[in-house]
Amino acid sequence: VNRQNPFGEQVEAHPFHFEDHEKMVSALVDGEILYNTYWVRFNHDEFTHSAAVANLNLTIIRPREAAVGPFVRIVV
């Protein structure tokens, strides 16, 4: 999704690429901090909570592979 980045050049935003290991790790390389806002509250026809948990696990494992700095999880 192409959205305007409200933080300008101060923060880089990248898609998660859950389905493509190399793309996800590549997007994270040289990152200083990973702010994770990914979450799913309810199951729906095209997506389940268990799939969201599996994706969340990838957002924890892959940053380690890319040697990203701190991982910050934001839940609203």
Per-chain topology:
Blueprint: H1 21-28, E1 34-36, H2 49-65, E2 71-73
Parallel strand pairs: 1-2
Fold and architecture overview:
- There is one protein chain.
- The chain is mostly helical and 76 residues long.
- It is built from two helices and two strands; from the N terminus they run H-E-H-E.
- It has helices at residues 21-28, 49-65; strands at 34-36, 71-73.
- The chain has a two-stranded parallel sheet.
- The longest helix is centred in the last third of the chain and has 17 residues, at 49-65.
- The radius of gyration is 13 Å and the shape is globular.
- The model has no long low-confidence stretch (mean pLDDT 82).
Q: What's this model, at a glance?
A:
This protein is mainly alpha-helical and 76 residues long. It has helices at residues 21-28, 49-65, and strands spanning 34-36, 71-73.
The beta-strand count equals 2
Strand percentage lies at: 5-15%
Rg, alpha carbons: 13 Å
- Helix % is 25-40%
Shape: globular
Could you tell me the mean pLDDT? 82
Strand order of the largest sheet: 1-2
